[in-house]
Amino acid sequence: MKREDIVGFLVYLIIFAFAIVFGLLVLREHASHAGLDTGIYLLYILGAIASGVIFNSILFELGHVLGAKVGGYKILSVNVLGFMFLFDGSGKKFRFKNYDGLTGETKIAPVEGKKNNPNPYLIFGSLLFAIEAVGIVIAFITLNGAERSTFEKNVAYFLLVILVVGVMILLYNIIPLKLDSINDGYRLRLISNPKNKEAFNELLRVERAIENGETDVEIKTFTEITNFTADLNLNKVYLLLDQGKFLEAEPMLDDILKSEDISERTYIRAKAQKIYIHLMNNPIDVAKEFYDKEVPMSERRELSEDISMVSIRAYILMSGLLDDSESETMRAVNNVLKAYKRTSKNRQKFELKLYNEALNKVIEKHPKWELEGYILEEKK
Q1: Greatest Cα pair distance in the chain
Q2: Whether 263 contacts 227, CB under 8 Å
Q3: How high is the pLDDT of residue 48?
Q4: Which domain does 290 fall in, by range?
Q5: Quick one: pLDDT band at residue 176, thresholds 50, 70, 90?
Q6: pTM: predicted TM-score of the whole model, two decimal places
Q7: Is 332:304 a contact under the CB 8 Å cutoff?
Q8: Domain check: are 123 and 261 in the same one?
Q9: What is the pLDDT of residue 2?
Q10: Which of 124, 139, 249, 279 is a plausible cystine mate for 317, CB 3.0–4.6 Å?
């Protein structure tokens, strides 16, 4: 289990424990005075939780939108619980789509000629929640007075549950650590480094250009490697691999792999890119020497467990060309659709091509493995 997974598990555990304590200390006491049957009270609580999730999800993304506007960015899309609203001029206004976040995601792009500042974009969601908290606390105190009716007190606790749900979302959102999705707290910590702030805006620009279908994007690369700058440099690596310029891509990967300021996930995926280059570009005996010398068992295991396109295409080359393991190759390709759906839109076309090239190389060596059905086709 990776460090990010452990941290994410602990955060979810804290949130769950907070919910249990609130239920036992607050809601159980309220249930005895609510004047509602057990079944009705359960529906009342479920309704309050659902309202809290929906309301706070909208509130946090509204904060992202307002913060992005203040920071000088253009809004491309707003996704709340899978409901995605598009503002990118593509003609489509709405669709259902996965998102990178706990309850939603707002995608933005820097506006040329403006001084883009990401801080408001990352802070305003929490500020709006603070306003919500003040409002609900005032309403709760007002409606829960001794002279108030049972109905008014039930409304007060309904609002309190909404607030508690918001606290749990806020907790996930402000922790300055990388979790299973990138939260505001983590990004705020990263952009405290001026280089990362520059890389943040450059990454937004590049991803937007690639999503628009530009194939010759000029990408600024960074020598000071962090998670942000590494991700930006990896966009350059994708373009070089797409053009078959393996020798130009490898030194950039080496710079990333030498850095001590990147996450385990960034490291292993950069290593997967390097493995891919060696196995696609070198004779088997040369690739085998690199594999035995520079890819320890711990990294091979991580690659086998990482459900991402970059790790899967490296692993099918490892298992198919070097280890001649049909079972391991099949295990990897059976996860490819899930990995492809998780891949950011701007990298999907690159990954489709690179994965198919790797798979065809394995098919060429092992035609009896019947891998042709796992070739990916681009959706029209």
Answers
A1: 84
A2: yes
A3: 95
A4: 217-374
A5: confident
A6: 0.75
A7: yes
A8: no
A9: 60
A10: 279
